[in-house]
Amino acid sequence: MADSLVIVESPAKAKTIGKYLGSKYIVKASMGHVRDLPKSQIGVEVENDFNPKYITIRGKGSVLKELKDASKKVKKVYLAADPDREGEAIAWHLAHVLDLNESDNCRVVFNEITKQAVKDAFKSPRKINMDLVKAQQARRILDRLVGYKISPLLWKKVKKGLSAGRVQSVAVKIILDREHEIDAFVPEEYWSITALLSIGKSEFEAKFHTLDGEKKELKSESDVQQVLAAIDKQTFTVGEVKERERQRHPSPPFITSSLQQEAARKLNFRAAKTMSVAQQLYEGVDLGKEGTVGLITYMRTDSTRIAATAQEEAKQYIVDKFGAEYAPETPRQYSKKGANAQDAHEAIRPTSVLRVPDEIKEYMSRDQYRLYKLIWERFVASQMASALLDTLTVDIAAGRAGFRAVGSKVRFKGFMTVYIEGNDDGTTDDDKLLPPLAKGDKVASKQIEPKQHFTQPPPRYTEARLVRTLEELGIGRPSTYAPTLETIQKRGYVAVEDKKFVPTELGELVIQQMEQFFPEILDVEFTAHMEEDLDHVEEGEGDWVKVLSQFYDSFEKRLEVAEEEMKEIEIEDEVSDEICEKCGRHFVYKMGRFGKFLACSGFPDCRNTKPIVKDTGVTCPTCHTGVVVERRSKKGRIFYGCSRYPECDFVSWDKPVAKPCPNCGGLMVEKRSKQGTKHQCTQCGHSEELAEDQQ
Q: Which residues belong to the active site?
């Protein structure tokens, strides 16, 4: 008969841990939090030192009854929720409802769900860390005060269903500020001159660099003509040749934010999906004969620290697989990501580097495999030797003008053998080789190409860029990024277009009101400072009641002013020319989480909606009657289909091109990759690379 009860959050985690602990332990799941502030009221006694009034979460009664019954049949109860603030709070709430003594050593934590880690954790249980609980409670109450005090005001003055929050409001403002930057941006003209040169049978490119020995920017066509006149009929002669060795170091192992960014770049995962799949890998995957095992360490972390045992195992694997020269002399140590990094537990890494992704691929879903492979490769690369690159810079004179050619070659790939970090702009690190060149060499000019350019506005935020910005500014914490991005879309404050955030009219209106009446909520420094205060509470160096009091004193005064002075705003829908086929009224434009759509103005009597169709100008290749139009799937992904659907079922994920294949006359579509954009035939495979200015 079992003599101990272990409580974790999820059934998957309970299943994995139960196999490790054996028959003396009963392992059950609380299904997350069991108590919280009530939804129907603010649930905080502000005048009584912000005392929270917790209630059992609706639907958790049967779970609690099962846990209470099980706890009465055993000698000892262990609380094994996740190793962070939320996990500590869950443990504290469970201790309260199960009448456990908080001073008992009932709390068990582990950073990875492997047999050894779990067994080691049960050898040294500890007391519930009340500093962690207080920090979580302070954040929860702070967010409740902001949400439940400002949201009703927005409901009354702007629109029902709105909400405000510390982190979400700052995120929307960051997106909105970027949109204002883009709107105010004035493009500036500039030019470049590229020379295609050759020596012997080798060709290479050099770019204009100087005129009369001074670096010169080409701002207009007249500047270009001046350079072209200076090099007319001139001989191109190699001048200074500089060679140097450069080291390239690996990226540190993943933390929560960098995992979300890289999964977005390389796997096209949204932040919420990344965290969901990572949770599955952490809680355990059945590997056949090996049984169920957690494949990665805890995925909510801002620390790049790695356990010495994991580093030693990685080093041995690297030496055996690639050779001793691929392992650094001493294990790599990575500094904290920022001043606010908690360093509470390790970076995200595989629980064993010996579980090579391709060797256990059959036991995982496609998404699990892809994310695990990304984490595994990043970790292995982080423990490998630096790459060595030879760079060559060659200055070439042509009369009064100077050109420069830059080449590089990887001499020793090091960590690049396994993994290279992605870029938001999709650039690659391909070798650019130059032929052997020496001072005094004459090179032939095969082509001189002047090209006009215009400066581009700053890019809109993708999920990856926004997460990185929030992290750099100290806004939010690892557990908050994904839900924040979800919330601002659900509320209709931002939409997603071409995988980038665009603020809606509603989002702009809400931020305008917030800026006027609650500027500190949108102040980046204020919000970051609040995060620091919560960190101090967690470390036992701050008073959570004092932190809340300092905030609420000024916040309460601003609320009173807003109640009196905030004007009611009526948001009028833009009327379209299209008529609802069901009731005859006009359609109006509405904004959803994936952009604009059409809805009947007769709502709620008529609930007819339809997407805004964008005509591509391409005749449907299936029925030859309809036209191909842009549509959105239920998940917001753009695809292309026939306007005569459902009579014609033509669909394509790739954007059709308004010209037939020159080989077979078939449909050409647009294919995008990190190397650029090309047009490719869907029938014969013929492809055409596009020039840079066509992409």
A: 298
